[in-house]
Design brief:
The chain has two helices and 30 strands. By secondary structure, the protein is mainly β.
Amino acid sequence: MDRMRISLPRRRRGATGGAALSLLVAAVLACGAPGPSLTPTTPPPVPADSSQSLSPGSATPEPPASASPPGDSPGPGETPAPADTPAPADTPAPADTPAAGDGPWLYLADFPGGRALEVSSVTAHGDGFVAVGWEPFPDEGFGGRRNGVVWTSADGLAWSRSTPASLASVTLLEVASLNGELFAFGRYSLCPEFNEDDCQDAADAGVALWRSSDGADWQRLPLPSSLQTGILDGLAVGESVMAAYGGTGDDLQSVLWLSPDGSQWSELHETAAVDPISAMAVSPERLAAFGTRYVPEEDDVETLAGYSDGGGFAQAQLPPGQRGLVQDVLWSAGRFVAVGFEYDDTGLAQGSIALVSDDGASWTAAPSDSLPDDAAFGALAGLPAGYLVVGSRPDAAAAEGESPHSWFSADGLAWTDFGALTGGGYRRLSSVGLSPVGAVVFVSDFEESDELEPLDSEAGGVHAWLLPSAAFP
């Protein structure tokens, strides 16, 4: 059973990166208050938490080498959507959106997914949520051209859907809130996702960033050329900094890009051999990052971890022999918590892992008898009384042999069952978000294909659940 479907890095590579770390890491973090982007702007019922969102499972093609810095040519905001693309006006779900499900999770049967195939990221905004994702062009499928989609909700139950013209030809990947504004990262391209016809792309194609105050109007911002022409693997956000991580250059050298406002950027090329990075979180004092290294003599995956330490980036101390892929890490209630899964002898996901650290430098693993042995942990949220994780576990009745599930821990070490997410389909976990109204989970239920075939159905492949804050453990 391949639980790798739960979430996959957006690229596959083995380079290790390089130069000395800038003192800007300490400077940027020192000017901020604690807490990442999932922390509500109103007095929150939840502690500061990480905004890590799970990534689409598909690999990202390398952007064209001819891409130029933003601003040299018209951005996606000036690229009209196809003539038969629906108007970008909000299309709200019915006010009395029905919700159903067994246990504390409410399945959002009327979530307006439309033709979307992924809700790739979600963040708190005010008391509610803003989520982003993508859908294929009309008459195209997973491997074709794409448009960005934005969803907003004030209560987590009723959602509005829009396809802003400024996000045409965009695969939206990440969204976060920083200093009261929304920032969305994506890939801008006029060509199909699987470019089989040597399509000539726009001069400013590649990784791009948009800013919005309300989730409706989005303005493209310039990015460093190394990020625009590179690969974005993920985003970690605190109250005073956002840290994008990925790779750049011909060898996709691991890089961190740091910004206090989405306009000013610095680059950090030293990640203590944590390359590529699979998950990252921000505390008031430092960054903590995880990655993996394949060990050929053991035919296994070794866990790697690093942290920013003043003017450098150092290797973290992990338990001896720590193995597995860390899917998510957050800072909440005064400690880092990381979760993921181990691999079995066949290379498939087998068994969950969890680690905790007060400083990001030294980590303690959860005892095996305090973890479900038949689960793959995926994404975290910091609740008032502890930590919630969503992942998957075997389910003989499910079409893919597994289904989404949740667990809770008061300390990040001892985990107990918190119930299944029932009522919808499932192939892979997409994103988890937290706000004062509750926690929301999005999954995708579609077959990835490199064929440029239209969707078999206009229904897309997105399912959603809400855990109201009143049902928090």
